[in-house]
From TrEMBL, chain A:
Compartmental location: Membrane
InterPro entries, sorted: ATP_synth_F1_dsu/esu (IPR001469), ATP_synth_F1_dsu/esu_N (IPR020546), ATPsynth_dsu/esu_N (IPR036771)
Domain of life, source organism: Eukaryota
A Pfam family per the record: ATP-synt_DE_N
Name of the featured protein: ATP synthase F1 complex delta/epsilon subunit N-terminal domain-containing protein
Species assigned in the record: Gossypium tomentosum (Hawaiian cotton)
Keywords assigned by UniProt, alphabetized: Ion transport, Membrane, Transport
Cell inner membrane listed as a keyword: no
Gene Ontology MF terms: proton-transporting ATP synthase activity, rotational mechanism
Sequence similarity: Belongs to the ATPase epsilon chain family.
Record bears the keyword Membrane: yes
Matches recorded under PANTHER family: ATP SYNTHASE DELTA/EPSILON CHAIN, ATP SYNTHASE SUBUNIT DELTA', MITOCHONDRIAL-LIKE
From TrEMBL, chain B:
Topology term for the membrane: Peripheral membrane protein
Top-level taxon of origin: Eukaryota
Annotated GO MF terms: proton-transporting ATP synthase activity, rotational mechanism
Localization in the cell: Mitochondrion inner membrane
Protein name (database record): ATP synthase subunit gamma, mitochondrial
Free-text function comment from the UniProt entry: Mitochondrial membrane ATP synthase (F(1)F(0) ATP synthase or Complex V) produces ATP from ADP in the presence of a proton gradient across the membrane which is generated by electron transport complexes of the respiratory chain. F-type ATPases consist of two structural domains, F(1) - containing the extramembraneous catalytic core, and F(0) - containing the membrane proton channel, linked together by a central stalk and a peripheral stalk. During catalysis, ATP synthesis in the catalytic domain of F(1) is coupled via a rotary mechanism of the central stalk subunits to proton translocation.
Record keywords, A-Z: ATP synthesis, CF(1), Hydrogen ion transport, Ion transport, Membrane, Mitochondrion, Mitochondrion inner membrane, Transit peptide, Transport
Quaternary assembly: F-type ATPases have 2 components, CF(1) - the catalytic core - and CF(0) - the membrane proton channel. CF(1) has five subunits: alpha(3), beta(3), gamma(1), delta(1), epsilon(1). CF(0) has three main subunits: a, b and c.
Classification via InterPro entries: ATP_synth_F1_ATPase_gsu, ATP_synth_F1_gsu, ATP_synth_F1_gsu_CS
Main location: mitochondrion
Membership in a protein family: Belongs to the ATPase gamma chain family.
Species of origin: Gossypium tomentosum
Length: 200, 325
């Protein structure tokens, strides 16, 4: 009975892992090789530790022509919201304003501010409110969006947003230290972004 | 004279039993009880010692079985979290690559370990890898410092590397692990420790029986710029346009901090899974050992019991025949 319990556990893991083992190393051998040599010199009796590169699916190289779709990975700390989903366009709210990414976009690193992220696939659009994070567009039309927190727009309660905005505005006016002022300002930014996301 | 012969017989039984591989059963514990329990002239061989030992081994078996079940349930709870967080570090590695062999002046090794023991060898492995990294990155002008998470690594590293330890953080798992807690922790580390490269050592969870020691490297923005300029792995980082902020350096700074907190979050979750998995297998082998021990003790117990019955019978019969004849 115990063995069956033990046997049950690895199966969901095997199904869930999309990652390959180090038999599938990408072309980035050189850093690993230098590390392994240096390790073997210092600690010959121990196997070197693995590094994250050996656990990743290698990414495809930059194609010569613009691919038809953008491949999006949208990850949050507690879930992978979208992983390698092929879409037409992605619009994010970067610190410099709204940015749209189509396939073949130039490689970019952008920091996000609280706002709406919309993913356009054919005729349907999925919108999320993102608190903050980063977006990387790679030259091979892969987009990685890493957010700290994201919720679909229909889960947001308008009344709580108004209340929160009022609260933080009041806190800002009564704030004394720089830290309190900064925290209140952040609260106001997030809530007004939420507000405009719900209305706009 | 018959009694002397019996006494010799009795003594002969006792060492025969204790020569079994149960080391604690030496002839001396039996000898006092031989004299204690008997009324005048009658001699028993006592099964008390064996019985006590059997009781304690059975209790140990129950406890270790229970610990294994507890570890299994905790593992199930935290495993889904860990798997969901695996997507978090991949974009960073895709963008910035992975440079464990980066040659930097200030290395910081962040060792993640457990607070509680009885989890097999995973903490010792992490500590050995940390010490290996320390050796790897020591030299003229280079220094390596430790940031320790967890009691077990602290106990081992404090012994010989006390002066290299910067921060010690324990009781990480008092509340369920979440990203907010880990990002506050990462913030503390980044504030208090000067670093050029952070190397996070943890055990990555592959399956209930397999945990792979892994080291993730997070480079500070200056080193990232340096590596990007010198070409090689990060060479095409310059081809990325950086939006927002006044300077590229600012964005890279935020990026490095975000990367550190994401990688830490995943590492802490993976290590917690590995800890529970290791505890499961340790407790499983412990209960199996206890079971084997119990079998051997039962055989010994039966032998002792039968020997004492035989001794009694012999005494009675020889006593009866002495009376007759």
């Amino acid at each position: 009975m115990l063995r069956r319990a033990l046997g049950l556990l690895p199966r969901p893991i095997a199904a869930a892992r999309a990652r390959s083992f180090s038999t599938d190393l990408p072309a980035a051998h050189t850093a690993d090789a230098t590390f392994m040599e240096a390790w073997n010199k210092v600690m010959p009796n121990m196997d070197p530790p693995k590094t994250p590169l050996s656990f990743m699916h290698p990414r495809p190289p930059t194609p010569s022509s613009i691919p038809p779709k953008l491949t999006v990975n949208f990850v949050l700390p507690y879930a992978s919201e979208l992983s390698t989903k092929e879409v037409d366009m992605v619009i994010v709210t970067a610190t410099t304003g709204q940015m749209g990414f189509l396939p073949g976009h130039v490689a970019t690193i952008a920091e996000l501010k609280p706002g709406v992220l919309s993913v356009h696939e054919g005729s349907e659009t999925t919108k999320y409110f993102v608190s903050s994070g980063f977006v990387f567009i790679h030259a091979n039309s892969f987009a990685d969006i890493i957010a700290v927190e994201a919720v679909p727009l229909d889960r947001i309660d308008a009344n709580l947003v108004q209340k929160g905005l009022a609260d933080f505005t009041q806190k800002l006016s009564s704030a004394t230290t720089e830290l309190e002022k900064a925290e209140a300002q952040i609260g106001i930014d997030v809530h007004s972004a939420l507000n405009s996301a719900l209305t706009g | 004279m018959a009694m002397a012969a019996l006494r010799r017989e009795g003594r002969r039984f006792a060492p025969m039993i204790s020569s079994r591989p149960i080391t604690a059963l030496r002839s001396s514990p039996l000898a006092p009880s031989l004299e204690d329990e008997c009324p005048l002239g009658v001699r028993y061989i006592s099964t008390q010692v064996v019985r006590n030992r059997m009781k304690s081994v059975k209790n140990i078996q129950k406890i270790t079985k229970a610990m294994k079940m507890v570890a299994a349930s905790k593992l199930r709870a935290i495993q889904t979290k860990a798997e969901n967080s695996r997507g978090l570090w991949q974009p960073f590695t895709a963008l910035l690559g992975d440079l464990p062999s980066a040659n930097v002046k200030k290395n910081v090794v962040v060792t993640i370990s457990s607070d509680k023991g009885l989890c097999g060898g995973i903490n010792s492995t992490s500590v050995k890898i940390s010490k290996g990294l320390h050796k790897l990155n020591s030299g003229p002008e280079k220094e390596t410092k430790y940031v320790i998470l967890g009691e077990k690594a602290k106990a081992q590293l404090v012994r010989d590397s006390k002066k290299d330890i910067e921060l010690i953080i324990t009781e990480l798992q008092k509340n369920p692990l979440n990203y907010t807690q880990v990002s506050v922790l990462a913030d503390e580390i980044l504030k208090n420790v000067e670093y050029d490269a952070l190397r996070i050592v943890f055990n990555k969870f592959h399956s209930v029986v397999s945990f792979v020691p892994t080291v993730s490297t997070v480079l500070s923005p200056e080193i990232v710029e340096r590596e990007a300029e010198s070409g090689g792995k990060l060479g095409d980082l310059d081809s990325y346009e950086v939006e927002g902020g006044e300077t590229k350096g600012e964005i890279l700074q935020n990026l490095a901090e975000f990367q550190f907190s994401c990688v830490m979050f995943n590492a802490v979750l993976e290590n917690a899974c590995s800890e529970q998995g290791a505890r499961m297998s340790a407790m499983d082998s412990s209960s199996r050992n206890a079971g084997d021990m119990l079998d051997r003790l039962t055989l010994t117990y039966n032998r002792t019991r039968q020997a004492s019955i035989t001794t009694e019978l012999i005494e009675i019969i020889s006593g009866a025949s002495a009376l007759e004849g």
